[in-house]
Every structure is written in structure tokens, then in C-alpha cells.
Design a protein that fits this description.
Blueprint: E1 27-28, H1 31-40, E2 51-52, E3 55-56, E4 60-64, E5 74-76, H2 83-93, H3 96-103, H4 112-122, H5 124-129, E6 132-134, H6 136-144, E7 152-154, H7 155-158, E8 164-165, E9 170-171, H8 173-180, E10 188-190, E11 195-198, E12 204-206, E13 209-210, H9 211-219, E14 224-230, E15 234-238, E16 251-255, E17 261-267, H10 271-280, H11 285-292, E18 303-305, E19 322-324, H12 333-356, E20 362-368, H13 375-385, E21 388-392, H14 397-414, E22 430-433, H15 439-456
Parallel strand pairs: 2-12, 3-13, 7-10, 14-20, 20-21
Antiparallel strand pairs: 1-5, 4-5, 4-6, 8-9, 11-12, 14-15, 15-17, 16-17, 18-19, 21-22
Helix pairs in contact: 2-4, 4-8, 9-14, 10-12, 11-12, 12-13, 13-15
């Protein structure tokens, strides 16, 4: 890292005219992204720079008319307005398995394909004017290049739309017509080390990619690595050599930024289970962690199934969390605190086992998010996850991944780097935690958790994930 700059995006309501209704947080003027980019790149940040890479949120949609102008503000974020539209689309194609087979993903409210169906139903006049679709990173690259006739995207961003198949490497225009009602123009999907073009000033712009794919590139994850992101909800993804078609829709089959694949499994509950327990005990997360470490593995028989918001993995959308094993000796704050950490990590281990059960090798697990710094997470995770745990130091890995992609594309253009294999960068600074002698104890805790899950929700996993494998 040589230089870095930062600027926030303007708040959604900052651009609302006086007297007008507040803007939806899901409707954004993308010009604000360009303004922020210009602010972040101010001063001498770009002095000597020869190439630029762009990473941006994958869950976005920009609708353009025949002249290349926006039909409406960009749709971004976890836009729950499209939930019913996503459900309609699932039924329209014949169910979850049909979508998984078609594009490796079952539509959700966040995906562009569901936003298209929502637009067609709620803003039909705008929908009819749409002749072209872009994702946020596509649009930013296009703007940086001076809005050329050629529009490009990459495999990673394309795989997040719901109308591109990572398995076949092709668009599915029939699914766009199913959602929107007519055909549209789509960007050209270029290779990971290809250039999208050059700016009027001569700077190379690389293909760009989505935030998750760029973060994986920035972290330097490869075959044998999995990444667990600890937010309110959780996600588990790994690098794999092929797209995984999952008829249940539990696995979402993304492409990565290097020519490989990123199978992802989502959970609805991760740190929200810790926060809920902390509020119940009137402590903060650091105090909850300290309490948990006063207990012992297995939490004196307490088991928390952390399905506080329903759950995606396993597919239990209408359930609630469950606390079992209450006895007089277990009814202490430290045992409840530990049960929360064990429940969260066992839920994520279930998601990890879905990938393992499909042949994904997992030797190291990267833990991301502020909760990865909690001592209880670091102490408990290796044994429950059954792998070495790596906690990288905080950094903007999505931006690092975009910069690496730009360097790779520049080298490939000059003939100094292979376009088929990215160069090796030094590993991110991190702390490593091993299960050691605790592995057997940790696996016994997993068995306790799995037994309670199966008793409470029999057959929730079609094949019932066991400890360390699916089956």
C-alpha cells in the first residue's frame, strides 16, 4: 500500500428537495458515487498511477434508456420491497431447483432479477423504457472510460444478478424477459485480467468486480480456504474449481475475480445472536465474551439454536431460536453467554459443512468482521469449525482486491504477467489460531448441537449435516 484516500457517500436524504418526500434509502443517484470517488482521489492520490480497478456492491441495478440515460435512480442495498417479486419469480420458473439449475442461485429480494420484476409491477411506465442494464461497478467503469459504445462487466458481478450462469458462463436473457417483460442490452463479460479500456488520459481500467469477489482477491484466499463473514447475519464462502449446482438453493454459485468460483452459503443469524444475549444479560459484547470464557465447553448442557430471524441454512424461514438444557446448575450468565457463542459458531459450522459435503476442501477459515476480535470467538472457533482459523488485521480488502486486479491487468497488457494466473502477493497480516488438543472437545460440542437441532427440526437438512461432513 502506497497511498489511500477516502470519502463517504452522501446521505440519501441529503439530495431531497425542500418540501419533497424523503428519498427511499434504496433509490440512489449514482452521480453521488462519482462525486465521492473524485473527493477520495483528490490531491496527489493518482500521481503516477497507470491502472485503476473498481469494486462495488453487487446488489444493485441501474436501468438505462435507449440514449444511455438513467430511467430512474439506481436500486441498491437490501431492498426488501422486492421480496414478493422474488417469490413470484421462483414460482414462475418452476421452483427453487429450477433456478439453481439455471443460474446457480435462487432469487432473493437483493438480486437484480427480483428488482426487475418489482419494477415491472410497481413502475410499469419506467420498466417499458428500460433498454439496458448495468450493475454499480459496470456503470462506474463506463463513466471513467468516458461512456464508450462498449459496455463491460466481469464474471463476479454478472454471477450476482440472477440472470447469468457461472456454470455455463453465459447470460440468460430469457430470465430477464421473465422478470421485466422484454429483452434488454447487457454488458460484455470480459476475463479477469482483461482491460475494460483506457481513460481519455490513457489510464487502463481493469474489468472490475463485486465487493465480495474483490475482498477474496484482496485477502489472497485460494483452494482450501474458506471465509466466514460475521455480521448480524453470516456468510460462508470458499474458492472452488467449479460451479456448484445445488437443487435446494442453499449454495449460491458465484464466480470469483480470478477465473475460479465462489460458492456461498448464507445464514440469517450470526452476531445478532450475540447482541440479543448481551442485551438479555445487560452487558456489551466484550463483557459477554469475558463471561463466556468463565464457562466450559458445552455450556453445562445449554444449547442455543440461534434462529432468531428464522434461518436460511437450514431452510427454516418461519422458525424462532431455541434454548435447551436448562437445569438449576446451568442457569448462570456465563453458561448462557458461552451457549450464544457456541450456537452462533455451530450455525456457521453447519453452513461450512454444506460446502464440505459438496467436495470443497477447507483447511483454513478466515474470520472477518469486528466480532472476530472477541476473545471468545477466537478461543472457541477453531475446535467448532474443525480448521485453522485466521483473523486478518482490519483493512479494506475489497479496495485492495480491485487494486490487485488493476495491477494484474496492466501486467497482462504489457506481456509481463500471465492473463491466466494472478501474481502472488504477500499474505495479509493476520493472527492464526489452532484447535490443538481442544479439537475432540469441540467436535463433541458440535455433536451436542446437531442432536438438539435434529430433535427440534428433524430433517431440516435434507441429508442432515454431521460433524465435519454432509451425510
Amino acid at each position: 500500500m502506497i497511498r489511500q484516500g477516502y470519502a463517504p457517500h452522501p446521505a440519501a436524504d441529503a439530495a431531497t428537495p425542500p418540501g419533497a418526500a424523503p428519498a427511499s434509502p434504496y433509490d440512489v443517484d449514482p452521480q453521488s458515487w462519482l462525486l465521492s470517488l473524485g473527493e477520495a482521489a483528490g490531491g496527489k492520490l493518482l500521481e503516477g498511477v497507470q491502472a485503476i480497478g473498481v469494486s462495488a456492491q453487487g446488489h444493485g441495478l441501474l436501468t438505462l434508456d435507449a440514449g444511455g440515460a438513467l430511467v430512474r435512480p439506481a436500486l441498491v442495498g437490501n431492498d426488501k420491497r422486492a421480496q414478493s417479486a422474488a417469490a413470484d419469480l421462483i414460482d414462475s420458473l418452476g421452483g427453487r431447483a429450477a433456478w439453481a439449475q439455471a443460474v446457480g442461485a435462487v432469487p432473493s429480494a437483493t438480486q437484480a432479477v427480483a428488482k426487475l420484476r418489482w419494477l415491472a409491477r410497481t413502475e410499469p411506465d419506467a420498466a417499458r423504457r428500460v433498454t439496458e442494464l448495468m450493475q454499480p461497478h459496470d456503470w462506474l467503469v463506463w463513466q471513467l472510460l468516458g461512456r464508450p459504445a462498449r459496455r463491460t462487466t466481469d464474471r463476479g458481478t454478472a454471477s450476482d444478478t440472477g440472470y447469468w450462469s457461472a456454470a455455463t458462463g453465459s447470460w440468460r436473457p430469457d430470465l430477464i424477459e421473465l422478470a421485466l417483460g422484454h429483452q434488454v442490452r447487457l454488458p460484455e463479460v470480459i476475463g479477469p485480467a482483461e482491460a475494460a479500456g483506457h481513460t481519455p488520459e490513457g489510464l487502463l481500467i481493469s474489468a472490475g468486480t463485486g465487493e465480495t469477489m474483490a475482498a477474496a482477491f484482496g485477502l489472497g484466499v485460494g483452494i482450501g480456504d474458506a471465509v466466514i463473514s460475521l455480521g448480524a447475519s453470516g456468510s460462508v464462502f470458499s474458492v472452488h474449481h467449479e460451479a456448484l449446482v445445488d437443487p435446494s438453493g442453499t449454495i449460491t454459485s458465484y464466480a470469483d475475480a480470478t477465473g475460479m468460483h465462489l460458492p456461498v452459503v448464507h445464514t440469517l443469524n450470526a452476531v445478532r445472536a450475540l447482541r440479543g444475549t448481551a442485551e438479555l444479560l445487560s452487558v456489551d459484547l466484550e463483557e459477554l465474551s469475558a463471561l463466556a470464557l468463565k464457562s466450559t465447553p458445552g455450556s453445562y448442557g445449554l444449547v442455543l439454536l440461534p434462529y432468531l430471524e428464522g434461518e436460511r441454512t437450514p431452510h427454516l424461514p418461519h422458525t424462532a431460536g431455541t434454548l435447551t438444557g436448562l437445569r438449576r446448575e446451568s442457569m448462570k450468565p456465563e453458561h448462557l453467554a458461552r451457549a450464544a457463542f457456541e450456537g452462533m459458531l455451530c450455525g456457521l459450522a453447519d453452513a461450512l459443512d454444506v460446502l464440505r459435503g459438496r467436495g470443497v476442501a477447507v483447511r483454513r477459515v478466515f474470520l472477518l468482521g469486528p466480532a472476530a476480535d472477541l476473545p471468545a470467538v477466537r478461543a472457541i472457533a477453531p475446535a467448532l469449525l474443525g480448521a485453522q482459523v485466521v483473523v486478518p488485521q482490519p483493512a479494506d480488502y475489497a479496495a485492495l482486491g480491485a487494486a490487485r486486479q488493476a495491477a494484474w491487468a496492466l501486467g497482462a497488457a504489457h506481456g509481463t504477467l500471465s492473463p491466466h494466473q494472478p501474481p502472488l502477493w504477500p499474505a495479509a497480516a493476520s493472527q492464526v489460531f489452532e484447535a490443538g488438543e481442544e479439537l475432540a472437545v469441540g467436535q463433541a460440542v458440535r455433536q451436542q448441537y446437531v442432536a438438539v437441532r435434529e430433535q427440534t427440526h428433524p430433517g431440516a437438512f435434507e441429508a442432515g449435516p454431521g460433524v465435519g461432513q454432509l451425510g
